[in-house]
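question for whoever is on the cluster today: can someone run the full assembly for these? two chains, 637 residues total. i dont have access anymore since they changed the login thing
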Amino acid sequence: MTLTEKILARASGKAHVEPGANVWVNVDVLMTHDVCGPGTIGVFKREFGKDAKVWDPRKVVIIPDHYIFTADSMSNRNVDILREFVREQGLPYFYDVIDDPNGHWQFDASRGQTKAQYGSRYTGVCHTTLPWKGHTRPGEILFGTDSHTCMAGAFNQFATGIGNTDAGFILGTGKLLIKVPETMRFFLEGAMQPGVMAKDVILHVIGDIGFDGATYRAMQWEGPGVYAMNMDDRMTIANMAIEAGGKNAMFPCDQKTLDYVRERTAENGTREDFEPVELDADQKFIYDKVFDLSKLEPTVACHPDPGQRRLAKEMSSVQLDRAYIGSCTGGKTSDFLAFAQVVKGRSVKIDTFGVPATTKVVRELKETQWDGQSVWNILESAGVRMTENASCAACLGGPVDTFGRLNKPMKCISATNRNFPGRMGNKESEVYLASPYTVAASALTGRVTDPREFVS
Amino acid sequence: MSKVITSPVYVCADNIDTDQIIPAQYLTLVPTIPEEYEKLGSYALIGLPDALYPERFVQEGQTQTQYKIVIAGRNFGCGSSREHAPIALGAAGVEAVVAESFARIFFRNCVATGELYPYDSNERLCDLVKTGDIATLDFEQDTLTVHGKTYSLKPLGEVRPVIDAGGIFNYARQTGMIASK
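^ ran it for u. tokens below:
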């Protein structure tokens, strides 16, 4: 069996499963956020009764992260709906925006968009919070009401996005009926050249198989190229399985995975026992291809979908209006460090926005010093508009006052994960997806730029 | 649900993602609150670029569409897992989307909510019909008839009774998988 089949077999109490089979799986973690949480809670109460209790409070994780730093009253209300449910159900894992469990969240626009407006428990983007706070464990089943839940596949976990109704069903029963996907294998060999990042790997692969090339399928990553990557890089790749239509991404578990997970479960007091799934000698794939990482070059996905692949070096005629770095995919500390490496001591030529994925990233960028200067200051000195308000922000547009949102037709190069029309706001805008290196280099020149001009 | 419906169709191309079906700024609406459910319908497909889709799917100030059938190309509903997408279409009065193919989570959300029937077509119908053409969809025969020509659609198979029941909860209760209310 493939890694995905092994996890689904175990979670459904079977010795063996085949692709296409429908199985009831026991859920280890259900994650929801402010956009889909209120609807999920509504379904749960409608179907199980207003006094119903969730199946296991320690397996529910609630992370407000989408529409937080906005004066939109409905968005603020939705965070309050989450808080009320958490209080009523006694849920231990709620990363609230404010500290008062009986309070109401209201964003104060008069204080501006860039200074922190959150309490001590707030974390930021859900997919980056889950591993940080010790909720991703190898061999487990994670469902989330968000399509980029597949990011946790980096941790040898079966993780996929679902809708409110399915999530409401899980809240009441702890189970879900799912179809076992066929598995595609992506075998990575060789080492990435300077200037090339994990983001280029996944943009290259999506360009190869197409925007729907993995629909209904698991994307399993193997090979020496995978083991050479750190967990941040694996997360970047797993995150974008959905941009090829994939059901989930799956990485093998190695010492890096174990070290990362054990450190964080211990730090946060989350469950420490888990059982990874190991690679079988006998696996059946519907697709199996070797990729030589040393041949990859900085890659861009052009408007209007993530499958529109081109090389950055062929796109220097494309003029840009804006650059953006942030999101679950591209807002990690390692992403900002790569970005800062390019812009250090230089000045951006176009409006450039930086939104850290989590409050921990904010802290790390302020604490990391290069030549006596914090990385945060290096970014700001280069002209990047940085905000301390970690969230999904303009990656998915959001309310009109969202930081960095494209409120008129423009061309934006972005380290995020999705670029369908209207994704970052205005529906006549064009979004180009690229690595933090490429976004940084392009911010300096105002046109799509191969970062190897700046990175040696 | 009636077994045969006749309606003007709304035609769109490939990769109609969830941001085009219901743009992110409207996700503040909670689908289980009835007045917000209705409002979601008024915004269905409002994210389609005006230049490509000059005909609005739901007229300004309305909550219901005249198009009970949507015809699309490949990968309809790709992108986000937001259930607001099938719900917005269902709330606007759509009964079926007939596409060359569907993205996985959208398809699943159609089934789980029972909001509409996601039919796979055998032909690329979005190149054969245009918005406003009158079509007849026969849910018994799994066919779509337009311009006097009848196209067979792929039967929905095991998910059909779930949608017929009105979604996963009704189906689970009918079949004894979870206790009755």
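summary bc i know u wont read the tokens: Chain A touches chain B through 52 residues (CB under 8 Å). Chain A has two domains: 1-296, 300-453.
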